[in-house]
Amino acid sequence: MKRDYFSQSFPSDRRAGEHRSGTCMALIDGRFLIWMAQQGAVGTTGESVNRQGLLSLLSQALSQSGLDVDLRRIYWYSDRSDGLIIDDQIVRLVQTHDADGGASLLRSLGHDLKQLAEHHACDHVLVASDDERFLATIDEAQLSGLSVHLLADESARNMPQMVRTDPGWARLLAQADRRVMVNSQALADMLQGKMPTGMGMAVEDVEELRKSMHEVISAWWAEEPEDLREDLKDALQISRGIPQEVDRQLLLRMRQRLARALSLPEKKMLRETLRVVVSEPIVAGAPAATTAVPATAGDGFPPDTDE
Q1: Structurally, how many domains does the chain consist of?
Q2: Pairs from 262-265 (Cβ < 8 Å, separation ≥ 24)
Q3: Predicted TM-score (pTM) of this structure
Q4: Strands (E), the chain
Q5: Helix (H, G, I), strand (E, B) or coil at 98
Q6: Is the peptide bond before 302 cis (omega within 30 degrees of 0)?
Q7: Which of 24, 35, 65, 93 has its C-alpha lying 20 to 30 A from 181's C-alpha?
C-alpha cells in the first residue's frame, strides 16, 4: 500500500503544557548583545559578534524556553558593518548610541516590529534590547496577536533584584510573553569566533555526527522508490514539519548507528540534514543502509522526547 506523505500530522500552533510552536523572527540590537556577553564572561572584550553561530544559539535558547519555533530570519541592528553576508540574516545600519542616544535604533527596530505585527508575518518575535522606550511598541504588537519575547541573561531569573538594580529593563522584561535566557559564556564564545553547538560537544564531534546522519539518511533515501521521493519533496515544500513515518524511521536508524537515542538538538540536526539530502541529486551506487526499521504508529509529530 502506498504511503501518503501528505496525510501525516503536523504540529499545531499550541502544544500540550507550556510548549508553543510557530514561526519566529528575531530583532537583535547588536550593541546590547555584546554588552550582555561582557557582563557574564570575565575578560571578554571585542565589539563584534561572529553572526555565523547566532541562529543556532538563539534557536537553542528559544527551545529551552519552551518555544519550539521555526526561527526564520534575524534582523541585526548595528552602527557598523561587519562585512558578513549570512543566509536568513538582514543587517540594519543605525546611528551610534553616542550620536543620538539610541533614537535611530528605536525607529528602525520599532518600525520592523510594527510591520511584522500589522502584516501577521510570523507568530513570535524575539527582541534583544534593554531600551524601555520599546514598551509601547511591544504592547501594541501583542495586542495585534503577536507573541513578543525578550532575550535576557541569567540576571533575569531574579526579577525582584532586577527591579531594584535596573528598573527600566525589569519593566521591559515584565512586558514580554516570555523571557528567553541565553548563557553569557555562550555569547562570549561568539565574540571569540567559537561556534556554539548547543549539544555540549566539540565542534569536531558535531561535524562527525552530522557526517553520520548524512550517510544514514542518504542510504535510506536511495532505497526509497521514486514516487515516494517525489511525495516527500512535495510534502517538505508544503510544511516545515517532517512526516511522522519518515521521522520515526530515521530516528530509529540513528539510534542503531549510535547505540543511543538522540537529544532534542540532535533530532533537529537530523531533520535539517534530511532537508539537505532531499535537495541533493540521487547518486548511483549509494551505500546500502542498515537493516530497515519498521515505522511505528503515533499520535503526532515531532516527538520531543527521546525515542
Answers
A1: 2
A2: 262/306, 262/307, 263/199, 263/306, 264/63, 264/304, 265/60, 265/63, 265/197, 265/198, 265/199
A3: 0.60
A4: 20-29, 67-78, 89-93, 124-128, 147-152, 178-181
A5: helix
A6: yes
A7: 93
d(CA 206, CA 194): 13
pLDDT averaged over consecutive 10-residue blocks of the chain (307 residues)?
Answer: 41 50 95 82 57 85 89 94 89 93 95 97 97 96 97 88 91 95 78 55 67 91 87 78 84 85 76 85 47 39 42
CATH of the domain at 156: 3.40.50.1010
Residue 3 lies inside a defined structural domain of this protein: no
CA 251 to CA 257: how far, in whole Å? 10
Q: Could you tell me the CA-to-CA distances from 81 to 78, 92, 261, 292 in Å, in that order?
A: 7, 9, 42, 50
Cell numbers standing for residue 59? 534557536
Domain boundary among 161, 191, 221: 191
pLDDT for 191? 62
Same domain, 69 and 177: yes
DSSP reduced 3-state for 28: strand
Nearest alpha-carbon partner for 290 in 242, 250, 236, 240: 250
The pLDDT of residue 192 is 63
> What number of other Cβ atoms are within 10 A of residue 166's Cβ?
16
148, 147, 123, 126: which is closest to 57 by C-alpha?
126
